[in-house]
Automatic annotation (TrEMBL):
Function: The GINS complex plays an essential role in the initiation of DNA replication. Required for correct functioning of the GINS complex, a complex that plays an essential role in the initiation of DNA replication, and progression of DNA replication forks. GINS complex is a core component of CDC45-MCM-GINS (CMG) helicase, the molecular machine that unwinds template DNA during replication, and around which the replisome is built.
Cellular component annotations (GO), alphabetically ordered: GINS complex
Segments traversing the membrane: none
Keywords for this protein: DNA replication, Nucleus
Species annotation: Cettia cetti
Protein name in UniProt: DNA replication complex GINS protein PSF3
Subunit field text: Component of the GINS complex.
Lineage, broadest ranks: Eukaryota, Metazoa, Chordata, Craniata, Vertebrata
Domain GINS subunit, residue spans: 89-182
InterPro entries assigned to the protein according to its UniProt record, in alphabetical order: GINS_A (IPR021151), GINS_bundle-like_dom_sf (IPR036224), GINS_Psf3 (IPR010492), GINS_Psf3_sf (IPR038437), PSF3_N (IPR055221)
Gene Ontology biological-process annotations: mitotic DNA replication initiation
Length: 209
């Protein structure tokens, strides 16, 4: 029986995949900002329509969904300015650099890495530091845990991971499970992953072209 829905992975880096549920949910995350000019007919949308007001006056502080902030942001026309959420500012980056593995990323933001990549769409002097994330420091521990915690309760560990890290953890556990099934003769053969297969198809297409 075929699945009714085939999961679509999120985009990479600053690009979003609009068929991905993860990216759709991430685009709803809020950014602190400021109206650099009056914003007509946006008061209700941004929850600032008190007293029947329809427009947001210039200089107003805002909480803007990512998708709308990207649409309004224009480096030539000063419509809005966007600030860094506090979890990406220097104080938190200092905590990460001290020991990235103790941080509960899911509590801070379930799409920490994806949302952080989207922040690079906005001009900010701290962008180079934001791009140097804690991912590498945490990646080794996540993969080690996925390989060494087989048939153990990993709920406490997984609860602290953001969605990208959870996906990597699941891939690691699935790979270990498939390998053990193959060792026990419960699988006929080890097959290449879909990523490897797709890469091979692209290389063949390039050769034929």
């Amino acid at each position: 029986m075929s699945e009714a829905y085939f999961p679509v992975g999120p985009g990479l880096g600053m690009e979003e995949n609009f068929l991905s549920l993860d990216d759709i949910l991430m685009s709803q995350e809020k950014l602190p900002g400021r109206a650099e000019s009056a914003l007509p007919r946006l008061a209700v949308l941004l929850g600032q329509g008190a007293g029947g007001a329809e427009s947001i006056p210039e200089g107003s502080k805002l909480e803007i969904p990512l998708w709308l902030a990207k649409g309004l942001h224009d480096s030539k026309r000063r419509i809005i300015s966007v600030e860094l959420p506090k979890i990406y500012k220097e104080a938190w980056r200092t905590v990460f650099s001290a020991d990235a593995n103790v941080v509960d990323l899911h509590k801070m933001g379930p799409y920490y890495y994806g949302f952080g990549s989207q922040l690079l769409n906005f001009e900010n002097p701290e962008n180079p530091e934001i791009a140097q994330t804690t991912f590498i420091a945490r990646f080794r521990r996540i993969m080690d845990s996925s390989q060494n915690a087989y048939n153990e309760d990993t709920s406490a560990l997984v609860a602290r991971l953001d969605e990208l890290e959870r996906a990597l953890f699941q891939v690691g556990q699935k790979g270990l499970n498939d390998f053990q099934c193959w060792e026990k003769g419960q699988a006929s053969q080890i097959t290449a992953s879909s990523l490897v297969q797709n890469y091979g198809k692209r290389k063949l297409t390039e050769v034929d072209g």
